[in-house]
């Protein structure tokens, strides 16, 4: 298993060791001991799964304290562009984003600490996404930022004119209009 730190401190890309044979393949997606050795020592308490079709954009989402969440994201079927935006007030990389293609083929995972807004776009015909969270869902603590906030300038790698976005996400504020509430 390979753990790679990203340009935005706290984000880690994880690539498993895959054992292929005539039956197919096997890999460990999560190994508490190996994750702990690499500084990822959270207790994951909730697994979420969603399925979406091409051009869907979910995000950008986060939960505030005391329900701020660490997320460990991977793809079971298809391909997504996974995006994490640094919204830690005072961070030298505040407002910057990192994106990585997570696919069922490359089996990469992205570890996203609290203090990041998370979203993804679906690059394949459909995609099933699974993510572990270290804190429970709490509706009152939910926050979000517009996926097409010009200040973030995220390249979602899908046609934004045809993007499928939830009615909740289309109403989200710009980063500059919600930053004062942030507590992680
Ligand atoms: C996130 C979540 C939603 N729900 C419910 C609320 C709602 O009725 C329904 C769909 O919720 P949403 O529209 O918020 O689902 P979605 O837009 O897929 O939200 C998710 O987006 C990605 C990018 C994330 O990072 C996640 O943390 C989460 O915010 O599921 C739960 O019951 N538990 C949960 O943990």
From TrEMBL:
Reactions performed catalytically: dTDP-4-dehydro-6-deoxy-alpha-D-glucose = dTDP-4-dehydro-beta-L-rhamnose
Gene Ontology BP term (one): dTDP-rhamnose biosynthetic process
Active site residues according to the UniProt entry: 61 (proton acceptor), 131 (proton donor)
Source superkingdom: Bacteria
Keywords: Isomerase
Molecular function in Gene Ontology: dTDP-4-dehydrorhamnose 3,5-epimerase activity
Swiss-Prot/TrEMBL site (Participates in a stacking interaction with the thymidine ring of dTDP-4-oxo-6-deoxyglucose) positions: 137
Pathway field: Carbohydrate biosynthesis; dTDP-L-rhamnose biosynthesis
Function: Catalyzes the epimerization of the C3' and C5'positions of dTDP-6-deoxy-D-xylo-4-hexulose, forming dTDP-6-deoxy-L-lyxo-4-hexulose.
Record note on quaternary structure: Homodimer.
Family to which this protein belongs: Belongs to the dTDP-4-dehydrorhamnose 3,5-epimerase family.
Protein name as catalogued: dTDP-4-dehydrorhamnose 3,5-epimerase
Species for this entry: Flavisolibacter tropicus
High-level lineage: Bacteria, Pseudomonadati, Bacteroidota, Chitinophagia, Chitinophagales
């Amino acid at each position: 298993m390979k753990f790679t730190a990203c340009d935005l401190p706290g984000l880690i890309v994880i690539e498993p060791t895959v054992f292929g044979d005539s039956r197919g393949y096997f890999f460990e997606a999560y190994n508490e001991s190996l994750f702990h050795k690499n500084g990822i020592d959270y207790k994951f308490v909730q697994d979420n799964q969603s399925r979406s079709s091409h051009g869907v954009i979910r995000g950008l989402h986060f939960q505030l304290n005391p329900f701020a969440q660490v997320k460990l994201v991977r793809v079971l079927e298809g391909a997504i562009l996974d995006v994490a935006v640094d919204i830690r007030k005072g961070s030298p990389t505040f407002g910057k984003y990192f994106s990585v293609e997570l696919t069922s083929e490359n089996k990469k995972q992205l570890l996203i600490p609290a203090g990041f807004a998370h979203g993804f776009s679906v690059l394949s015909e459909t995609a099933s996404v699974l993510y572990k969270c270290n804190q429970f869902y709490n509706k009152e603590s939910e926050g979000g930022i517009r996926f097409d906030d010009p200040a973030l300038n995220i390249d979602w790698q899908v046609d934004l004119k045809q993007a499928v976005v939830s009615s909740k996400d289309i109403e989200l504020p710009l980063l500059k209009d919600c930053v004062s509430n942030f507590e992680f």
